[in-house]
Amino acid sequence: MNLQGKIAVVTGGSRGIGRAISLRLAAMGALVYVNYVSRSAAAEETVALIRAQGGQGEIVAFDVADGAAVQRAFKDIIAAAGSVDILVNNAGITRDGLMARMKEEDWDAVLDTNLKGAFLCAKAASREMMKKKWGRIVNISSVSGFAGNPGQVNYSAAKAGLIGLTKAMAREYASRNITVNAVAPGYIETEMTEQLSSEVQEEIKKDILLASFGKAEDIAAAVAYLVSDDGRYVTGQTLHVNGGMYL
Ligand code: NDP
């Protein structure tokens, strides 16, 4: 699985699942642009880890939900690196709360980052991919987008929306040799999930066939397959990486 010479952008690549994806793509030979929005130290640490393993990484700070910022960032990356070949739309946030009490701004924030952000980045990246007639786009969805999760109507809607985006894009871009797929993680050990109490964690584990939470590297492995030559004949699909918690 060789990505020598490929330029990859991983949104939210600075920590959690995004960091594991960035490290994995860099280990496969890609030059990885590690995106973040607020915590620069995490992004610096990720790029340091990439370089320590002999890979190439750069930091790119922008808010995926800000259309002008996304356009500027991709223009700068293409000016510096020559192209964008791989995009992983991984940046995501939660603003949980029961529907009855959910504020409109919590709905908007999650939809803007998790769904509109993916659209904006995919639009900017695919323009370049079309010129080269090669591209790989992977959208990080969630089991919540398939099963629905109480307290997460905003997040579940955004993650389900990513599946529609994935399928429609796959249809539009296949003739340009650009594949578009989704990975839907179950519960993965990151900062996003470590806020859960140990009682809640034990409850969740009862629903997971493999009886444990996944690791960020499990998601990185799925992304690695989809962007590599091994995954070249796969498009418009969702790879569920959830230990069997949703079938
Ligand atoms: P983390 O909270 O650990 O990391 C989120 C990353 O996204 C950070 O790098 C953060 O940057 C970045 N980010 C957030 N908002 C923006 C923005 N507006 N623009 C650019 N970057 C942004 O999340 P996880 O690693 O747990 O999750 C990664 C993805 O996987 C998300 O899409 C999430 O929904 C999905 N997922 C996670 C699961 C899990 O169990 N952890 C399960 C299913 C799906 P900064 O640090 O600067 O804020």
Q: Can you give a write-up of this model?
A:
This protein has 9 helices and 7 strands; from the N terminus they run βαβαβαβαβααβαααβ. The chain has a 7-stranded parallel sheet, with helices on both faces. The model has no long low-confidence stretch (mean pLDDT 97). It is an alpha/beta fold and 247 residues long. It has helices spanning 16-27, 40-52, 67-81, 104-132, 144-147, 153-173, 191-194, 198-206, 216-227; strands at 7-10, 31-36, 56-61, 86-89, 135-140, 178-185, 238-241. Helix 1 packs parallel to helix 2 (40-52). The two termini are 28 Å apart. Helix 4 links the parallel strand 4 and strand 5. It is globular, with a radius of gyration of 17 Å.
Helix and strand arrangement:
Elements: E1 7-10, H1 16-27, E2 31-36, H2 40-52, E3 56-61, H3 67-81, E4 86-89, H4 104-132, E5 135-140, H5 144-147, H6 153-173, E6 178-185, H7 191-194, H8 198-206, H9 216-227, E7 238-241
Parallel strand pairs: 1-2, 1-4, 2-3, 4-5, 5-6, 6-7
This protein binds NADPH dihydro-nicotinamide-adenine-dinucleotide phosphate.
Structural class: alpha/beta
Encode the helix/strand succession as letters. Answer: EHEHEHEHEHHEHHHE
Give the total of beta strands. 7
Biggest sheet, open or closed, and with what strands and sense? 7 strands, parallel
Q: Which kinds of small molecule does this entry bind, naming each only once?
A: NADPH dihydro-nicotinamide-adenine-dinucleotide phosphate
Radius of gyration: 17 Å
The average pLDDT value, as a whole number, equals: 97
| Spatial shape | globular
C-alpha end-to-end distance = 28 Å
Strand content: 15-25%
- Distinct helical segment count: 9
Q: Portion of residues in helices?
A: 40-55%
Task: Give the neighbour order of strands across the main sheet.
Answer: 3-2-1-4-5-6-7
Task: Enumerate the spans where pLDDT stays under 50 for 5 or more consecutive residues.
Answer: none
